[in-house]
Design a protein that fits this description.
The chain is an all-alpha fold. 77% of the residues lie in helices and 0% in strands. This is DUF6261 family protein.
């Protein structure tokens, strides 16, 4: 039987936390059988009311979380993050243009290789039209796919420098985003922490309600919502795992460097 899997929202970054909650609210409003929704007509009124109350609470707490985060406009690092975001946008678009040009290369083998890379670029849509957190996620997925290509593929179409530049721009943005978050928290740590904690608690309460209602009413009324949330959780877990791996590798490299110097 379907259920929303457990996930510790504290393991992701501040803006990722908000974006996750925003998506959950949006999806819940669109597909959960709440009061006044035609899909709730055949369900017990008590369960519909309980679900509506829980979703309304999450939406209210998420809106409060958003309001606190909007102090970003007065944070100096926000300008750096915006500039870094624009830089990575251009790096993505310029790199894709290069691959498109290579897809028309007179050498058929190189053209086929370029089309393979172009397919990966188009697989996740244009990330530059998404929110910053969604763009970070899309670029992460793109880079994972590019890294998985056989050795020599990118070199054969002279794309290694373009790819390295995109990686640098992505890392530059992530660093600026981290600095922005730290400055925000330094400015209003209490307000942000309180709003985040309350929103996350409201999310956990909604998860408990949905999982309990599956046992009462069956999974059909809630299946679409559960599947959506679990996909979002899987995506965030992959990002957390990647960060952990990079951090561990960095420590190993730093230790190796220290041992070499010694």
């Amino acid at each position: 039987m379907k259920k929303i899997v457990a996930f510790d929202l504290k393991s992701i970054h501040l803006h990722e936390n908000f974006e996750f909650l925003r998506k959950v609210c949006e999806k819940g409003d669109a597909c959960l059988p709440t009061t006044g929704d035609l899909s709730a007509a055949d369900l017990p009124e008590s369960t519909t009311t309980l679900l509506t109350t829980s979703l309304d609470k999450l939406q209210a707490k998420t809106n409060a979380f958003d309001a606190v985060l909007k102090i970003a406009d007065s944070i100096p690092a926000s300008t750096l993050a915006a500039q870094a975001d624009a830089k990575r946008d251009k790096a993505y678009r310029d790199g894709r243009k290069f691959v498109m040009a290579m897809a028309d290369h007179p050498n058929p083998d190189l053209a086929i290789t370029a089309k393979t890379v172009l397919f990966l670029y188009d697989k996740y849509g244009d990330p530059t039209n998404k929110s910053q957190d969604e763009e970070s996620s899309s670029l992460y997925n793109l880079m994972q796919d590019l890294d998985a290509l056989e050795e020599g593929v990118l070199e054969s179409i002279h794309f290694t420098e373009w790819y390295a530049y995109l990686k640098d721009c992505q890392n530059e943005f992530l660093a600026a985003d981290k600095q922005r978050t730290e400055e925000k928290m330094a400015k209003e740590t209490g307000a942000i922490k309180t709003a985040q904690t309350e929103a996350n608690q409201a999310y956990r309460e909604l998860v408990d309600v949905v999982n309990a209602l599956v046992l009462v009413n069956g999974e059909t009324p809630y299946a679409e919502f559960i599947d959506f949330v679990n996909v979002q959780i899987a995506d965030k877990k992959a990002i957390v795992k990647s960060r952990s791996t990079k951090s561990a590798n960095k420590k190993v490299e730093e230790k190796a460097g220290t041992d070499t110097e010694a």
